[in-house]
Automatic annotation (TrEMBL):
One of its GO terms (molecular function) is histone binding. Pfam families: Cnd1. Component of the condensin-2 complex. This is Condensin-2 complex subunit. One of its GO terms (biological process) is meiotic chromosome condensation. InterPro entries: CND1/NCAPD3, Cnd1_C, NCAPD3. Residues 131-141 have a biased composition (Basic residues). PANTHER family: CONDENSIN, CONDENSIN-2 COMPLEX SUBUNIT D3.
Amino acid sequence: MDEELLLTRIIAGIEGGGDDEAYYHELVTDLKSLLDTDDDEILNRFYGSLSSMASSFLRCISAAMDSPVESGRLAILASDAYLSLLLSTNCPVFTFFSPIAFLSLLGSIRRYLKRRDDSAGQGSNSQREKGNKKKRGRGKRNLGYEDGEETEEGGFDAKLLFIVLEKLGSVLSFVHLDRFPDSLKSLVQTVSEIPLLALEYSGFLNYDRLMEMCGKILSGVLNSDHGDMALTAAEISKSLTPLLLMGKHQARSFALGFVSRKLMGLAKDNSELKKVVSNLPKFLVHKAPEKAEPRGFAVEAILEIVKAMEVEDQSDFVDFVLKMCQGKSNFRILAVDLIPLLISSLGNPLGVNSSENGLKESWGLGCLDALLQRCSDTSALIRARALSNLAQVVGCLSGDERSRSILKQALGFNGETSEGKGAVTDLLKKRCVDEKAAVRRAALLLVTKLTSLMGGCFDGSILKTMGTSCSDPLISIRKAAISALSEAFRICTDEIVTTEWLHSVPRMIMDNETSIQEECENVFHELVLERILRAGNVLSPDSSLPNNRNNTSKDLDRDIEALFPEGVLVLLRELCNSEVSPWVTKICGSLGKKKRLKPRVALALQCIIKESESLWLSRSMPINKWTAPAGAWFLLSEVSVYLPKSVEWEFLHHHWQLLDKNDVQGLDEQGDEQGVECNSSTWAGDRVCLLQTISNVSLQLPAEPAADLADNLLKKIEKFNLHSAEVDAHVKALKTLCKKKARTSEESDMLVKKWVDQVLAKASKVTEKYIEGVSSNNHSFVTPATLGSRRSKRLDSVSKKLSKAVTAVYTIGSCVIIFPSADTTKIVPFLHTVITSGNSDSKLKNKMPQANVCLKQKAPLLYCQSWLTMAKMCLADGKLAKRYIPLFAQELEKSECAALRNNLVVAMTDFCVHYTAMIECYIPKITKRLQDPCEVVRRQTFILLSRLLQRDYVKWRGVLFLRFLLSLVDESEKIRQLADFLFGSILKVKAPLLAYNSFVEAIYVLNDCHAHTGHSNPDSKQLRTKDQAFSIRGNDERARSKRMQIYITLLKQMAPEHLLATFAKLCAEILAAASDGMLNIEDVTGQSVLQDAFQILACKEIRLSISRGASSETAEIEDEGGDSNTAAAKGRAITQAVRKGLIQNTIPIFIELKRLLESKNSPLTGSLMDCLRVLLKDYKNEIEEMLVADKQLQKELVYDMQKHEAAKARSMANQGVACGTRHRNSEPEAPAASEENVRDSGLESRVVSAAADVVAAKAARSVLREVNGGAATPPLSAMSVPKLRSSRGVRGVSQSGRPSADVLESLRRRPTFMSDDET
């Protein structure tokens, strides 16, 4: 009887109607309860009664499914009841099915899954309100949930959702939607949205089951009963696109799986459906986002779909991708990202497994060519991506030998004849020095991959470029360059690769970045020390020597090269290069402190030296002409500091005796008996390194041999016939041996003091004796004499005495360095005598003894060496330094000897470390050496001052910074590279505001301009004389280009806000100063300053577009992976406001300055107009408001630019005509043709002039058209008469409507606009 009551209530409710939520809730509950009954008779009566009021019922049930209350729970319950009605037995489906009701059902599902404020997202609130709002509704009890679970009112019920979806799938099996296309479209869209909408509730429901049910529904509508399958598939593909393009998630996996399996499976038997599926990747291409990470997800989705396609469809898509490479930027970058994935995923890209013509027909070669073209794209982002993806392709296709061969041919490396030069060589040269960091980094990555492909055989210019990149301002570029160059050195051991690596990578041990220092240590350990270690292991005691008995030097060198594999001899030889050895010392020291030096390295070096000697003796060569492999002793001396126990004393003793017995003179007298050259400097260098090694291991030596060695060293020192490089080694080794002999430190100091005093006494006697001899004999040391004469013998004797005196003075300095407390009171006077000989200063003569002759001319070696020794003594004695530092500064400024100036610069910089306060006033004199005539002195000064600046011993103030600027345009390429690194890397971090603060002053100083009233002072002439050497005066092209290069370097170091401020300072301090008369523009230097300002304001480095730091640097930003959209938007808004105010304050200055220059008929008018034209283009949005408010100004600017462009075009055209006339006149012609040539020339000039006017008018209008947003500027004849304000305050018009007399008179007085050729 309850069923009867439910039936009556439902019918009465439908007939009575209602629109409140309680009514809908009761209707749905009763309907669900009735449908759950098993009484067929009641249901049949219900269907019969309901059929007569079907429209009313559908209206009510649709309203219930559209209800938003309870967060959509009532609506989803109504949908469940409606679907149950359609699925019930004997239900008249077509009577109760309505498209409107079906759309309401789909809408209820979407609303139920949307985010709610009081449900799953706020579980705490639900728990808090559970006791107050829990309600057991009839609907829940009647749905059959008998497991005791409770669902809050308005909460999310996953089971209810699954029931609705399952019933929806069942309904679609007999309700066909071919007659309801809108319902079908809505169904597809809703089911496709469910995975996205259900993400919030992934923790409350079985997500895999939900995806399975959605897949079943979509598969069910892919049936001919529901309409055209192709149209349905297209709608499904379109609806699944958001899922395909989203990040990694189950919803994306569901969409990819459905498309690649279900749709592709159906497409195999349906040609129409196949077209739809094959066009889906192309559709995704158009929908792909532009940002890097979402674009990457889109590329992956496209690739997954393409991989599931058939071969012919894949080929068609590859052709589509190649066409994309020629499209817009978003398509080009997408194509560039797709190509490497297609090549690595699709089969046989190079046609390796195809027919003989497979190379030409393979699709992979077309993709390679497209990538190569995009490597030169106008967009920096596309260039970077193309280069990195090309590197990925090269690595992918370098697997087997045949693919490598085809790849080399495709890249232009044609086998053995290429020598590392291919189609990509010129490309890499450009891209490795690209202005964008991401492009440079990608180019270096490509070089690394190509190195493996080519076996390290690269063009020398590419290696040079990689070496230069090691000094790039960006850390990531330096790391990439080290990696690329190390990869080349790892694969190839050619001399050119070895040399470039050693000259570029070890120096990075001094980099400011710790990670780069560690990388430098790692690659040096791997590629240098490990390689030497392997070479030592190969040379086992049982290894047989080559049997070649030829004793020529070439054959011997060839045998030695064969004895040591992997280019070890070349490696060792370059290690002792003067430009490499300091960095090797630093690296070995760092590795030794970290205990990373292996004892086997020292053993390997000893083995290499022994084997070289054995090979020499095996050829019956004289041992006194043998030299160890160059660099072996040097490296052994460096590693022995930390590996003293690994060096054998017998080995050192044997070679010390060998090197000590064979002095340079004996070698020279013996000559070259067997065609083997002996280099005396090599012997000296080996002795120095051997002594260094001995001193390093002296603490491990036996006592008796150590004492004998010390006695031998002291005797050799006291002879004063050693080379200067050997003196330091002997002195240092002797001091170390004293430590070995002594038991305590006090005893060691006493021993060192004893022999130092002994050596100093003998050295002073030798030097004083020589000075006395020179003073008593007034003969010349440079006059040539006949060989064998008595005079020649006497000169030889004096020359030996001079050499001995020079060595003695040098020995004094070495002893003072190792023992600063030595007594030098007797040495200072005679050194003073030498360095002041020939000085006319009477004060000096009265204080110290003077020589009778000028030793500076008679004995220049002794003179220079005395200065060096005096500097060492000053470092040990502060009082002595205070007395002699002024003399050092004076000699540095006046000396004509480059070697002496170089040593004095070193001395002065050492003084700066020890006596900073005393030397500070002499810094300007030291900086003068930055413009020294000698390149070595300039480079030495630059390096030493840079180190002082980095360590804060010297501050960036005064003239120091301005004088450093000229190093950026130095004649020496090495100095320019050092300067670029200093300004681009070190200063940018250490002093970021330096370039901005000194920019305007640098313009005046570089032009040597003192025409500004603010620069005038009583000492202007003296300042001009001092600073003229550090200026680049002149208006010629060479001087302007040098100055501009300096300006651009400084601008690149500035932040965006500093660029804006610099723009304002240039306008205020130069342009405004010129218009106000403070800057004399009639002076040549003043004109240069003004012209430089115009060029700077027009250059691209100072132009700050709205997108700077955003789109223009997209590649760099994407690499960083940062997301700062809010900060970027705020920065762009501030920048735009500043730009607007800046340009609106600048244009009036330009207008006033233009009038001043025109009144003076200045040649700078053209530069001003060129600058103004650039500003009108770059700041068109900001200037537009100004020109709209002042139409007269706009018209004047148009006319003046048109006039200027016409003059420029006419001048260029006339030059072309003149060149053509000269060319025709240079050819032999008949005399009668001369008059005709004159007429032709005049006619041609007039034609060219008219054409120039047309071009100028077009150029001027194009500028203002951009400013006006596309509206063309009217011609001058169409311009209206400007309205001028009258003296009575009326706007130039009388009450009668006619212009007043004052206005007419003012117009009469206005000058007419006439071009230069009008009269």
